[in-house]
Amino acid sequence: MEIRYTDIGLNLFSGQFRGKEERIIENAHAAGVRVIITGSSLHSSLCAAEFCADYSGEKVYFTAGIHPHDAKNCDKEALKRIREIVRDNTENIVAVGECGLDYDRMFSSREVQVKAFEDQLEIAGESGLPLFLHERDAADDFIKILEKNPDLAKRAVVHCFTGDRETVQAYLSLGCMIGITGWVCDERRNQSLVDALDVIPADRLMAETDGPYLLPRGIKGLKNPNVSENIIYVVRKIAEIKNVGEDELRRQILDNTDKFFRIK
pTM higher than 0.90 for the full model? Predict the structure, then answer.
């Protein structure tokens, strides 16, 4: 199989994919897309670890962590289990996360989110793994925490970035990589992101679907749920916005991803 893309964020254990997990991955591989499954809770991290260990086809990778929406469940026992997942799955795990801060819907309080984020930064520090980060409407606190952990910030990717130029410049100055989703294809709400892309160097970019969510808009024939093969439209749109060759950008992003996640 020729790998042409890596989808750095697929929520394989979302309900929309239930019972179709193997087929979703098989279809991605058939299209030349390597997949990194997102662990966003203890449960989904455990599911991802088991799936990757048991899957008999082309190698699949995953992250393990607790999303800020679920931070209220990030207790000592959950952190112990995340550490065990990291320890026991060195062949397939590529990052700690999805973790970070989300002050939009506030499923967990700010204080609880900050504690869960800092606890998971500690796991990344112990393990040496990269970080797969989430931030929404929380840039100030997020940046302050990363500034206190400069070595970790340099091995972090801020996934599903939808913010503005000023925010992305702060992340870039900290050494972070930036993950872009199908949000970039939605002309109803992508203006800030389009402007931000102007200052993101190609060697700091990654691409992802965040499937089954964020289906690229305006592509004839595409239907929900969003799947990893649709990453082609994300890369194509970024290339159009940055006025660079699509294949040149595709190869650069693939190289960025392999190096960052240490995929050989």
Answer: yes
